[in-house]
């Protein structure tokens, strides 16, 4: 698979083994895992961070194999889903950081290009999420109001 804004391929790395059920050694207590996911979200952790903590501290290699649901599905069922999807939020935060940097360093051409590429990714993701109804119809990314969006 090629990179989005570069003409090169990605790096090879390890791949999670194909499994249809949780391994024998893993923690598979469904109610406990769901309770931990809800508690960690209430503490302010993102869904990616929740998965890492469950893997590293609680011995749950895959939440989906242990509970039958993804972390986002568990959060949606418990009413803890964020208004903006996590990957979109991360890209908007990156774009805000680049904009702040460019206000102080106006001649930084490399970061101007990186800002253009990042905002192109944001617009592409917004189009996808509006089409799949995760965001309301007519939702647009505006750099001027992006900081207000993330404060919610």
UniProtKB/TrEMBL annotation:
InterPro entries per the UniProt record, alphabetical: Ribosomal_uS15, Ribosomal_uS15_arc_euk, Ribosomal_uS15_N, uS15_NS1_RNA-bd_sf
Record keyword Ribonucleoprotein present: yes
Compositional bias ranges of the Basic residues kind: 1-11
Subunit structure: Part of the 30S ribosomal subunit.
Molecular functions (GO terms): small ribosomal subunit rRNA binding; structural constituent of ribosome
Gene Ontology biological process terms, A to Z: translation
Organism, as annotated: Methanospirillum lacunae
The name this protein goes by in its record: Small ribosomal subunit protein uS15
Domain Small ribosomal subunit protein uS15 N-terminal: 1-60
GO-annotated cellular components: cytosolic small ribosomal subunit
Domain of life: Archaea
Stated family: Belongs to the universal ribosomal protein uS15 family.
Region (Disordered): 1-24
Gene: rps15
Keywords assigned: Ribonucleoprotein, Ribosomal protein
């Amino acid at each position: 698979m090629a990179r989005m804004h570069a003409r090169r391929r990605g790096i090879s790395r390890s791949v999670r083994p194909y499994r249809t059920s949780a391994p024998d050694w893993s923690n598979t207590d469904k109610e406990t895992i769901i309770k931990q996911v809800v508690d960690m979200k209430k503490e302010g952790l993102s869904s990616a961070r929740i998965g890492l903590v469950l893997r590293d501290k609680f011995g749950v290699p895959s939440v989906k194999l242990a509970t039958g649901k993804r972390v986002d599905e568990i959060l949606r069922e418990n009413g803890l889903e964020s208004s903006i999807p996590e990957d979109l939020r991360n890209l908007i935060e990156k774009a805000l950081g680049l904009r702040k940097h460019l206000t102080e360093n106006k001649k930084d051409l490399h970061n101007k290009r990186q800002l253009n590429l990042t905002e192109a990714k944001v617009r592409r993701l917004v189009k996808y999420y509006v089409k799949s109804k995760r965001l309301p119809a007519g939702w647009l990314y505006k750099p001027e109001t992006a900081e207000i969006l993330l404060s919610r």
